[in-house]
Design goal:
It is a single chain. By secondary structure, this protein is an alpha+beta fold. The chain folds into five domains: about 300 residues, Methylamine Dehydrogenase, Chain H; about 160 residues, 7 Propeller (Methylamine Dehydrogenase, Chain H); about 90 residues, Sandwich (Immunoglobulin-like), CATH 2.60.40.10; about 100 residues; about 140 residues, Histidine kinase-like ATPase, C-terminal domain (Heat Shock Protein 90), CATH 3.30.565. The chain is about 20% helix and about 35% strand. It contains ten helices and 69 strands. Strands 58-64-63-60-61 form a five-stranded mixed beta sheet, with no helix packed on it. The two termini are about 85 Å apart.
Length: about 1000
């Protein structure tokens, strides 16, 4: 597949290339042109009344069933208010004038909008012809007369009996002169007199044509052309470049090279080659036609109705049954009457091709004109060319050698010494030996004037194909994966298994072998395969030629493969680089596939750029010097976007409904010469990272595309790599569904955060409740112990004291026993008081303030250099005893650490009674303690810090220890209110 250059130029204007497109070569017979036909089964509308091509490349077809347009691939009905189209005219601004039957006139603008114009005054019947002058005025011809539309109004230019039912057409020439014709007269508009003046002359009525040089011609009812006498305008100007594209002609048309095409002469079509260059005298196409197509099998119908030449040089013919397109084939067939098709072919040094037919033994030659001529005096089976360039014709008894016009004979061997008719399979000259293979003799070699059998040579046992190398050299394949170089009796074997069954051996500067799996080339004394692998086009190559420019031409399974010199050298130098090639196949006139039956080469290089190819469907010719690329740049157009909800016409900004995440974008680039070769690339910004190769596909498919704004672009290149100037693009906006809107997503996020917060709060509450429950259990246990002590132990002790006291009262005052018992009772009372205090502590816990003040004072007394201060913030509140005891323990440990290790001059303890939490802080101004030291102490299991954290965790408190070297240490303990305050539990 040929690579296409995608270096596109981005411009503001669309450029037309009328001057570089060529008409169909008149030297190619009509029957040898590439004809493609469309009928109703292909979608073409029936009963085409008119045709036109607008500047965007669309071919428009007017029918009684409506207006259609064609991009080379698909016929599409264009929706209009009116349907019965009669005539059309494409304007140079890209608009299309369309008239209808029985009345009506519309302008289909290039942007797709439609403008409806009013009908001419006193109109009887539809508008049959129309055109627009440089001022923008529309000129229209009806069955009644000629009218002009300007400034939104119609004016009558000519009407009356002379015009009734005989108006043929209206034409505006390259000088902006208006011409109108009836069946019997011709008129030219005088702008000063503001009327049509009759042009005098015989046979001036009928349809008007214009040849490329700008001359007008009138076609009468008998299909005869007469030149129109035209006033001298000064410098002669050619006709307008889009004259033939503006509308189809019902009678005849000059193509851009001046060839005259005539309809119904008397049926089908005929052509007068180069008629536009003839002098000013009448032309009778029926008599002067150089060739014609007038058989039913040559057209969709021999009842032709219109003809148009498009901007790419194709000729379109509408018929009663369909539509025919004519364009040039790159390959021209050789028509050989009587040949069976199994040919042996060679060439001579005089530019002639020689052919021998296996079945009939006939000999033909083909010269530069491409016409095959049979030689009545010669016959043969197989042809070859010797080292001197002589043609060898193998017959049944001898080989005729024709060199520089002289003939000589070489007798064939006689098996058993008797003359026998031999069936020669092939002849080959290696420079030292003339080799011949026949059914009756097998392989033999003519050396020093004697035919020697195969056994006299050191040849391999198995030979499948052969090709001559240097003098005395043969390249021999064996259909076993091997290739042998037979060099004057010495054999060297090579591996060519990669190609499978070999189909061609091509010696030269680089030895190439073709086979059923591709081609291999000798590189560094071994064969390497060139890719792309499994390419159908590179399979079964049986012929190869190298033209003077270094390009290679390979004849293979799909047709003729053209490889440019640089591409070939790149792949040979680095075989991993796939070959870039162009394929000339059936679409260009290739018949079948490369012939491999007789194991002879199938490409014949005539040395002047002309190649002859032998194919299964016949012999064809290619003139590489005459190849004309299609230089008309395609104009890409976006058509519609299809979603699950429906189809939407393409627009600069297209808004799709919500949930349009699956859609396809249809596009096209009207190309009428070879639409099958149009290549596309597209990209959707935001989805595609780079251009996507679509090949010939005219739709881009996307799935799971989210809401948002995207820019879609598409570009194209025609069959010859000519790329479009402008990239077609549009903006697509996909509306979000409710669940895809930003506010809905924000709401979902808020709800999710709220749910997370709720879960956090719930877990916090559960954790707090668990701690509170544990604290309550501890509190209940303390109260139970307190009750037990009060109700049992203390009561028992009290009862014991009372019994002792009752004994005491019976003892005399001042006696020693009484005195000793009184002392014992005093100690018992003190014990009872201590017990009551312990019970009270079990119920209410230690007093935090008292414990901190007492602990701080005690430590300050020991550490005289360190002062202590206790600060209270807020109103003191009763604390939960279990929590209070843990707080006292943590605070006392923090105070001891500060007095013993901080080397501080002052230690401050602060109790903050907050509504949401109680905050206990112990701070010093000592040496400080950084975070790393805290981590190290925890890691080394310093139980003071560990114990503080464990106690804090047990009561649901948060403990923070911070500070920095030289800035003191702060220990902060924060307990939620619901855990620390007694009234909250």
């Amino acid at each position: 597949m040929r690579g296409y250059c995608w270096k596109l130029l981005f411009g503001l204007a669309l450029l037309w290339s009328w001057h570089v497109a060529h008409a169909l070569n008149p030297d190619i017979r009509l029957e040898d042109l590439n004809r493609t036909s469309w009928t109703q089964k292909d979608g073409v509308p029936s009963d085409i009344q008119s045709m036109a091509q607008t500047r965007d490349g669309w071919l428009w077809l007017g029918t009684p069933d409506g207006l259609y347009r064609f991009d080379g691939v698909t016929f599409e009905r264009y929706p209009l208010k009116l349907n019965q189209v009669l005539a059309m005219h494409a304007l140079d601004n890209g608009d299309l004038l369309v008239s209808f039957s029985p009345e009506g006139l519309l302008i289909v603008h290039a942007n797709g909008k439609v403008t409806e114009l009013s009908s001419p005054p006193r109109q009887q019947g539809a508008i049959r012809a129309m055109d627009m002058d440089r001022s923008g005025a529309i000129w229209a011809a009806t069955f009644e007369g000629v009218y002009r539309y300007a400034g939104g109004k119609w004016e009558t230019v000519a009407t009356g009996p002379d015009w009734a039912d005989s108006v043929q057409n209206v034409t505006i020439d390259q000088y902006d002169r208006v011409w109108a014709s009836t069946r019997h007269a011709l008129y030219r508009y005088d702008r000063e007199a503001k009327k049509l003046l009759r042009v005098e002359g015989e046979g001036m009525g009928g349809r008007l044509l214009q040849s490329p040089d700008g001359r007008l011609w009138a076609v009468d009812d008998n299909r005869n052309l007469r030149p129109v006498p035209m006033p001298a305008p000064g410098q002669q100007m050619p006709r307008l470049p889009d004259f033939n594209q503006s509308e189809s002609r019902e009678v005849a048309q000059f193509d851009r090279d001046g060839n005259l095409w005539m309809l119904l002469c008397p049926q089908g079509i005929c052509r007068v080659a180069r008629a536009g260059s003839l002098p000013n005298r009448p032309i009778n196409p029926a008599q002067q036609a150089t060739d014609r197509l007038d058989q039913a099998w040559q057209l969709t119908d021999i009842a032709t109705s219109g003809m148009l030449e498009d901007r790419e040089g194709n000729l379109w013919v509408s018929t009663r049954s369909g539509l025919d397109r004519f364009r040039e084939n790159k390959l021209i067939p050789a028509r050989i009457a009587g040949a069976s098709g199994e040919l042996s072919v060679t060439r001579d040094d005089d530019g002639k091709l020689w052919l021998a037919d296996w079945a009939t033994r006939g000999i033909w030659t083909i010269g530069a004109d491409g016409v095959a001529v049979r030689d009545p005096h010669r016959s043969g089976i197989s042809l070859a060319r010797d080292r001197d360039g002589a043609v060898l014709i193998a017959g049944t008894r001898d080989i005729e050698r024709i060199y520089q016009g002289k003939s000589s004979k070489i007798s064939l061997p006689m098996p058993g010494g008797k003359p026998v008719d031999l069936t020669v399979l092939g002849v080959l000259d290696d420079g030292n030996t003339l080799w011949m293979a026949a059914l009756q003799t097998s392989l033999m070699g003519l050396k020093d004037g004697r035919w020697l059998p195969r056994g006299e040579f050191n040849l391999p046992q198995r030979i499948y194909m052969s090709a001559a190398g240097g003098p005395g050299q043969l390249w021999l394949s064996h259909n076993d994966g091997g290739l042998t170089l037979y060099d004057n009796g010495k054999s060297t074997r090579y591996d060519i298994a990669a190609v499978g069954l070999e189909t061609g051996i091509f010696p030269g500067q680089q030895l190439v072998v073709g086979g059923e799996r591709g081609i291999v080339v000798m590189r560094d004394n071994r064969f390497v395969q060139l890719g792309p692998l499994n390419s159908e086009a590179l399979r079964m190559v049986s012929g190869m030629a190298v033209t003077p420019d270094g390009d290679r031409w390979l004849n293979g399974a799909r047709g003729l493969v053209h490889i440019r010199r640089s591409d070939w050298e790149n792949s040979v130098r680095q075989p991993s680089i796939p070959l870039v090639y162009e394929l000339i196949d059936a679409l260009e006139g290739y018949p079948g596939r490369a012939a491999v039956g007789n194991r002879q080469t199938s490409v014949y290089n005539m040395g002047n750029g002309v190649l002859w190819l032998r194919a299964t469907g016949g012999l064809v010719r290619l003139d590489t010097n005459a190849l004309r690329a299609n230089t008309v740049k395609p104009i890409v157009q976006l058509l519609r976007v299809n979603t699950d909800q429906g189809a939407y016409p393409a627009a600069a900004v297209l808004r799709l409904p919500p949930d349009s995440h699956n859609f396809n974008i249809q596009y096209t680039a009207p190309g009428l010469r070879k639409p099958e070769g149009m290549q596309f690339q597209y990209k959707l910004d935001g989805v595609d990272q780079q251009w996507q190769d679509a090949g010939t596909r005219r739709a881009a498919y996307y799935t799971n595309v989210g809401p948002g704004r995207y820019n879609f672009s598409v570009r194209a290149a025609n069959e010859d790599g000519m790329a479009s100037d402008v990239v077609a693009s549009m903006q697509i906006e996909i509306a979000p569904t409710i669940v895809q809107t930003w506010w809905f997503q924000l709401l979902c996020l808020a709800l999710a955060l709220l749910a997370l917060y709720g879960a956090w709060r719930y877990r916090l509450q559960k954790a707090t409740a668990a701690i509170a429950s544990q604290l309550q259990v501890r509190m209940d246990e303390r109260e139970r112990i307190a009750r037990t002590l009060h109700d049992t132990f203390l009561q028992s002790v009290q009862a014991l004291v009372l019994r002792v006291y009752s004994v005491l009262t019976k003892l005399p005052e001042g006696s020693e026993p009484r005195t000793r018992l009184e002392a014992i009772l005093d100690e018992a009372d003190r014990a009872i008081e201590e017990g009551r205090d312990q019970v009270q502590q079990l119920r209410s816990g230690l007093d935090l303030e008292q414990q901190l003040r007492h602990c701080g004072a005690s430590l300050a007394a020991v550490h005289e250099a360190t002062g202590f201060e206790l600060m209270i913030d807020g109103t003191a509140r009763a604390l939960s005893p279990p929590v209070q005891e843990e707080l006292c323990a943590i605070a006392q440990e923090a105070l001891r650490n500060a007095f013993q290790h901080a080397h501080a001059s002052k230690v401050t303890a602060r109790i903050g009674y907050g509504d949401d939490a109680l905050v206990l802080t112990v701070a010093d101004n000592g040496r400080g303690l950084d975070d790393e030291e805290v981590r190290e102490r925890l890691k080394d299991r310093h139980f003071g810090l560990v114990g503080m954290r464990e106690r804090a965790r047990h009561v649901g408190a948060a403990l923070e220890i911070g500070g920095a070297a030289g800035q003191g240490t702060v220990v902060e303990l924060k307990v939620p209110a619901r855990l620390v305050y007694a009234e909250a539990l």
